């Protein structure tokens, strides 16, 4: 996305599995909290599950890869 390209993530309904990948990517790429990343996704795709940020696997990713990154 630094070069103006789009990222496309797809699975059957685009609510759960792809949403989990998307929230992790948004949190990492934009250095957002999980709650802020969830809001970012909901503003762009209202059908995404509203509790993705609470999933154990999403929190594990966030703890491992996002928590100690410096802000932009």
Automatic annotation (TrEMBL):
Which part of the chain is the Tyrosine specific protein phosphatases domain? 1-56
This protein's source sits in the domain of life called Eukaryota
Gene3D superfamilies named in the record: Protein tyrosine phosphatase superfamily
InterPro entries recorded? Dual-sp_phosphatase_cat-dom (IPR000340), Prot-tyrosine_phosphatase-like (IPR029021), Tyr_Pase_AS (IPR016130), Tyr_Pase_dom (IPR000387)
- A Pfam family recorded for this sequence: DSPc
Protein name (record): Tyrosine specific protein phosphatases domain-containing protein
What lineage, starting at the top, does this entry show?
Eukaryota, Amoebozoa, Evosea, Eumycetozoa, Dictyostelia
């Amino acid at each position: 996305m630094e070069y103006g390209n789009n990222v496309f993530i797809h699975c059957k309904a685009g609510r759960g599995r792809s949403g989990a990948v998307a929230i992790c990517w948004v949190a990492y790429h934009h250095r957002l909290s999980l709650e802020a990343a969830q809001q970012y996704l909901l503003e762009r795709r209202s059908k995404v599950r509203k509790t993705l940020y609470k999933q154990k696997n999403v929190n594990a990713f966030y703890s491992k890869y996002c928590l100690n990154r410096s802000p932009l």
